[in-house]
Design a protein that fits this description.
9 helices, single chain, alpha/beta
């Protein structure tokens, strides 16, 4: 019994914060979990920048509405879902993920939620659980599933390493160099072949 566990941003869709950094003209917001392993620290820093510039949920959602999945992502996801159950495990937020899930054919996603004031200011965020990716993979394993996982960033490493098999996808040279034991792929064809082999 296999469940495929996928990261969202960088694997299936472009990085939301990078897209918003470009749309808003605020280059500091290009910093992601590829650069900062501490997600809590990263999010607090992002919220500080949004507050400083008077930007809120509405502006970010306007950018997200224009984001399309990475070319080939939906086809990859459709094929994978025809083989096994798939869960997207992401550190993004329900308020961001909704429109993107529609474009991907409404796969299951486990993510977090934002705290938003009536004026649209993002005042905080609520993580679903501690170390959400690792915790989720271990919970799935505890109910009899084997997990096969993929992701691109620091916050995916624990989930990938705890799984029966796991791979880096479209990751950075530094993360690949720091984790030489993990297979790393750049195309959906390679990634699909790796999933098939892992579940054989």
């Amino acid at each position: 019994m296999y469940i495929a566990c996928l990261d969202l941003e960088g694997v299936l869709v472009p990085e939301i914060w990078i897209a918003f950094a470009e749309a808003s003209g605020i280059p500091e917001l290009k910093r992601t979990t590829r650069d900062e392993p501490d997600y809590d620290k990263l999010m607090k820093w992002r919220l500080g920048i949004l507050k400083e510039h008077g930007l809120g949920l509405k502006e970010i959602q306007e950018t997200i509405a224009k984001i399309d999945p990475i070319p080939g992502a939906k086809e990859f996801l459709d094929e994978l879902r025809s083989m096994c159950q798939v869960i997207i495990i992401s550190d993004t937020f329900e308020q961001f993920a909704g429109p993107l899930m529609k474009k991907l054919g409404m796969p299951t996603i486990f993510c977090n939620s934002l705290e938003v004031a009536e004026n649209g200011e993002i005042t905080g965020f609520k993580m679903r659980c501690e170390q959400s990716k690792l915790t989720t993979v271990k919970a799935l394993q505890s109910i009899g599933y084997e997990t096969v996982a993929t992701g691109d960033s620091h916050n995916d490493l624990a989930m990938i390493k705890a799984s029966k098999d796991g791979f880096l996808f479209k990751s950075t040279e530094q993360i690949k160099a720091d984790n030489p034991e993990l297979a790393a792929y750049e195309t959906y064809e390679e990634l699909m072949a790796a999933f098939k082999k892992a579940m054989d």
